[in-house]
Specification:
650 residues; Bacterial polysaccharide co-polymerase-like; four-stranded antiparallel β-sheet; 20 helices; 11% strand; elongated; disordered N terminus; transmembrane; Bact_polysacc_biosynth/exp; nucleotide-binding
């Protein structure tokens, strides 16, 4: 059965507020007049706008850029940036510019009396230009109430744009030519000044044209260095001789060799005479004098040679000093010439660069002159616009359907919002003013009211159940009590079970009858298997004794039974009254859990058969107008003034 499936999957806890389709439908039906008024207020002006809105016809032309970049070249970077052609993306701005639109409007309406400025604003408001992705194509589109005018305007705008591009490129070429002419004049003057500066510097620096002064200096430095080599060698020899006082160094001189030979002979004669004649012999004395004379001559000649070599060394040193001084002067001249040549090269390089730039400008000037007469736009019409055969945009019939759909949707949303924004019943006085019922208790909000009732735990919830019973028992008769609610999910079944468990706990014999034929839930709440019950008894299928079950907690249960096989008008028969009359003597209290009052007529029928009627109202959920409707139904049928319980109070 469907109820078993709901139990297995874990139905939502009774009492949780939610807005389902049935509830939403009920709200819309109850407030259908408000929804009709809201929908009408939306649809009437919308329909009027659509009917009065004129049909627009869209014409489309395509432009293609053959070469998006400028064909005039880039001569000086930042100097020429004013003459660069914009990219395709920036051309969209040019196509939608007021200046170009004004030209188009004037061209299309030539000879007509027309406010060009107003027409230009109107033309731009319905003109679009878009670039196709990854292409050089721009799509131009224009809408007008006249299909012919739509085609004429978009084609004329494309032609005007191409013409303006040609004029712009021609003007760019002329401006560029004028700029180049100015640059050529300035460069010529600059070259003349630089050439004069080169010549003047050559003259001031003593640089001879056609000759390399540096090479001459370097040659002289080389010659002087070569001359220094033998002089330095001679200087070294002479210095070495002058530093040695030995006579052996003069042995190479012939005169010295001759004098040494004479001294040797004189020594030999003196030795021989002395040996033969004695020391005082005149011949010995003569021989001594001869030898002394030869030694004196030798010393005299050595002194002469030394003086001669010293004079030669002085001469060599003088020559070396002169050559080294000359070499130093030449080195200074070479350094000066290098600096002058470096500076001269810089002057000549500047002059050469200016001449090269001048040649480039002159060449480009000739090219620009030819482009001035042959200036062509780099944009052409890829496909002109044709006259549109039908109006653009959404058809009016489709707009009407969409308006009706959205009007109803918005009307329903506003209607439901009005319902939901009504916070509903807040206090017992709110419910009492709407129901005109007797208030018997306010159940606090509890996370597990069933457990509190099963365990007979002392709590605020169970204290309030006790007060409810005491309020009911004060009436003349409270044997049979019907417990219901305006709508599902307000806690009527939980409240019934809690009251039954309390009464059972104080020794009362209690029977709970599940008379909720729309969605019975009692079996699931008390954890017993679903079986035959009220439906089978009322239809005459089974006797009553076989249908009443005793729960393990002590109270008795009469299930709802199989509702699928029960007749639709099962509650309207006399067997229901017979059932209540038969059971009343057997039990202290009979608690009948019925379907919600607004869901079907079961509660209305049963309310006329029982002693007491109790309505469970969930705080903040029910609206006053809903409770007023419930009150009208129950007060007409109930034997006594019904009572109500405010559920889920803080």
């Amino acid at each position: 059965m469907e109820r078993r499936k709901e139990d297995r999957n874990g139905r939502r806890q009774e009492g949780t507020p939610f807005l389902d389709i049935a509830l939403a439908t009920g709200i819309l039906w109850r407030r259908r007049f408000i929804m009709i008024i809201i929908t009408g207020l939306i649809l009437i002006p919308s329909f009027a706008y659509v009917l009065m809105k004129p049909d627009f016809y869209a014409s489309t032309a395509s432009l293609i850029f053959e070469n998006p970049q400028s064909g005039l070249g880039d001569l000086q970077g930042a100097s020429l940036k004013a003459f660069d052609d914009p990219s395709i993306s920036s051309q969209l701005g040019a196509l939608l510019s007021s200046q170009l639109a004004r030209r188009t409007v004037a061209a299309v309406n030539e000879g007509k009396e027309l406010n060009v400025e107003e027409k230009t604003v109107d033309f731009l408001s319905r003109l679009t230009a878009e670039k196709k992705p990854k292409t050089n194509v721009i799509v131009l589109s224009y809408e007008d109430t006249d299909p012919v005018a739509s085609m004429e305007y978009v084609n004329k705008h494309a032609q005007t744009y191409i013409q303006s591009m040609q004029e712009s490129r021609r003007q760019q070429a002329q401006d560029l030519n004028a700029w180049i002419s100015d640059q050529v004049s300035v460069l010529k003057q600059d070259i003349q000044k630089k050439s004069e500066a080169v010549q003047k510097y050559k003259a001031d620096a003593g640089i001879i044209s056609g000759k390399d002064s540096g090479d001459l200096i370097y040659q002289q430095i080389s010659d002087v260095s070569k001359q220094l080599v033998p002089i330095e060698s001679l200087k070294a020899n002479l210095s070495a001789k002058s530093s040695t006082a030995s006579t052996d160094q003069f042995s190479s001189f012939p005169i010295i060799q001759s004098l040494k030979a004479q001294i040797s002979l004189a020594q030999q004669d003196l030795t021989a005479v002395s040996a033969n004649l004695g020391k005082n012999h005149p011949d010995v004395i003569t021989a001594k004098r001869r030898m002394e004379q030869a030694n004196a001559d030798l010393q005299r000649e050595i002194v002469k040679i030394q003086k001669s070599e010293k004079a030669e060394l002085d001469t060599v040193l003088m020559q070396e000093s002169i050559l080294r001084k000359r070499l130093a002067e030449l080195n200074v001249q070479a350094g000066s010439i290098r600096q002058k040549e470096t500076f001269l090269q810089s002057l000549e390089s500047e002059e050469l660069a200016s001449r090269s730039l001048l040649e480039n400008f002159l060449k480009r000037q000739e090219e620009i002159k030819s482009q001035i007469s042959l200036a062509q736009s780099n944009v052409r019409i890829l496909s002109p616009a044709d006259m549109p055969a039908s109006a653009s945009g959404v058809q009016k019939s489709a707009l009407f359907i969409a308006l009706i759909f959205f009007g109803l949707l918005i009307g329903a949303a506003i209607t439901i919002a009005l319902e939901l924004f009504d916070r509903g019943i807040e206090t017992p006085d709110d419910a009492r003013s709407a129901l005109k019922f007797r208030f018997i208790g306010a159940l606090p909000n509890s996370h597990a009211p069933e457990l509190e009732a099963i365990n007979h735990r002392k709590s605020l919830y169970m204290d309030e159940i006790k007060r409810i019973y005491l309020s009911l028992s004060k009436r003349n008769s409270a044997k049979s009590i019907m417990i219901s609610s305006a709508q599902e999910g307000e806690g009527k079944t939980i409240s019934t079970l809690s009251l039954a468990r309390y009464l059972n706990g104080i020794g009362q014999k209690i029977l709970i009858v599940d008379a909720d034929t729309s969605s019975p839930s009692l079996a699931g709440k008390v954890c017993i298997h679903e079986g035959s019950g009220l439906a089978e008894y009322l239809s005459g299928e089974e006797p009553l004794d076989n249908l009443i079950q005793k729960h393990k907690d002590g109270f008795f249960i009469l299930q709802a039974g199989n509702q699928n096989t029960a007749p639709v008008n099962i509650m309207s028969g006399k067997r229901l009254q017979t059932l209540i009359d038969e059971l009343t003597p057997q039990f202290d209290h009979i608690l009948i859990d019925t379907a919600p009052v607004l869901k079907n007529s079961d509660a209305e029928i049963i309310s006329s058969l029982v002693d007491q009627v109790v309505l469970v109202v969930e705080k903040k959920r029910e609206k006053k107008h809903t409770l007023k409707k419930v009150s009208e139904i129950l007060r007409q049928q109930a034997k006594d003034v019904p009572s109500f319980i405010l559920n889920k109070c803080a």
